[in-house]
Amino acid sequence: MTVKTKFLCGSNGSEEARSGESVLTFEAWDDNPTTGRPSTVADFEALIASLNTAVLAACPSTFNGLYLDSLGWREEAGEHRYFFDAKYTWKAPESVIRWSFDTTGGSIKITTSKATTKYAISGRTAPDFQNAIGVKSGGEPEGVDITIPALKLTATYRHAASSADVNSSTIDAYIRTLASMSGTTNNATVGSYAAGELLFLGASGEFVPDKPNEFQYHFAASANATGLSIGSITSIAKKGHDYLWILFEENDDSTAKKTVQRPLAAYVERVYSESNFANLKIGF
After folding, report:
1. Cα-flanking dihedrals φ and ψ of residue 81, to 5°?
2. Rounded to an integer, what distance in angstroms lies between the CA atom of residue 43 and that of residue 49?
3. Cut 0.90: pTM above it
């Protein structure tokens, strides 16, 4: 086959690359009189495949800030002339992370406050519970539900069709890796997040053999903390997704002449396993 291509025109341009699309049109032909005019379905299939390969080689990977999305062809009836439309749209380039985020906050029940202002009836002193919230007579703090900072992140990543990590022979093992890593925290720094600050919630997507594959990777972020104080307990340190709870005990408040519940000890529980986020294969 002697395949040739020719750029004809462009259409559907957009000044704002991310909101539009563009189409570049090529003509392709085989000037060999035998292979260029196929007489069987098999020969026609071979011709289209060769023309398609030639046009792909002629197409730029990007145009006007857009990325090559699809290539379609049509024949001018009876002329053995084939026209290919290369469609360009906005999408994340291969092997580059695109982040989306949600900071709408979360809810948690706390049993101690950051600060307390006390008031009492005339002639009496309000008991000092050392920031315990909602303490009933003889009982432990009831606490209160509050809104706290919560950062949810989604990383969109397009694995190249030639990826050594995500392909037909590795996809089953890769999916199993993603499943096993769900519900784990990072064991090393990832970008600006220190070890323990990112919780991998899982991934979603669809794998298509021999094509670029775009998957979504979901995370929750919570900052590590040091130097926390609860009542008279100081210098508490916890990683972002550790669980902190407080043990209270009865104490005599000699000033108020009352028995009160006060924080005795703080416990930091590691409830998630750690994993190496490099195994996600998205550039971490």
Report:
1. -110, 130
2. 10
3. no
Residue 217 · residue 200 · CB < 8 Å: yes
Q: Which fold has domain 3-89?
A: Alpha-Beta Plaits (3.30.70)
Query: CA 276 → CA 158, 191, 192, distances in Å?
Result: 20, 13, 16
Looking only at the bridges linking them, the beta strands covering 66-76 and 81-89 are: antiparallel
pLDDT tens string 249-275: 988 988 988 888 899 999 999 999 999
Per-residue buried b or exposed e for 84-122, using 16+ beta carbons within 10 Å of the residue's own CB: bbbebeebeebeeeeeeeeeeeeeeebbbbeeeeeeeee
Q: Which residue is associated with the tokens 């040091």?
A: 226
Helix (H) / strand (E) element for 218: namely: strand 213-221
- Under DSSP, the state recorded for 116 is -
Amino acid at 56: L
In one letter, which amino acid is 80?
H
The residues spanned by each domain of the chain are 3-89, 93-284
In tens, the pLDDT along 43-82 reads 999 999 999 999 999 999 888 888 888 999 998 866 778 9
Tokens of 31: 């000037």
